[in-house]
Design brief:
single chain; about 110 residues; mainly beta; five-stranded antiparallel β-sheet; 1 helix; about 45% strand
Length: about 110
């Protein structure tokens, strides 16, 4: 039986599929970027969605906590180190600190 191609000197799966992420300071105006983000201390409903005034439905708030999601970076302010991010799931916009955004990548 022949050995797998990775044993023949080809690059590893991790090396081939490694993504290069962008730092907030490296973002170029005019390009579109996506990121994962965390918003702390917001009302959350029983399904883990932003609740209260951030909700599209009239459901009770289950707790106050962190909301984790992904979205497009709409705006960036280098002086205050803040992003405005539009959430993929809810289409709401959140203000997120640079430190609470990760996996920033260019959308092509």
């Amino acid at each position: 039986m022949e050995s797998p191609v990775f044993e023949k000197g080809y690059p590893s799966y991790e090396a081939v599929n490694r993504k290069s992420y962008v730092k907030p300071e490296e973002i170029v105006a005019g390009n579109q970027y996506r990121c994962d983000f965390v918003v702390a201390d917001i009302p959350i409903d029983q399904w883990g969605r932003p609740g209260g005034m951030l909700s599209n439905a009239d459901v009770p708030i289950a707790r106050v906590g962190e909301y984790k999601s992904s979205g497009y970076i709409v705006a960036r302010d280098v002086n205050t180190r803040l992003f405005e991010v539009q959430d993929y799931k809810t289409e709401k916009k959140f203000v997120v600190e640079f430190d609470n955004a990760s996996n920033i990548e260019l959308v092509e």
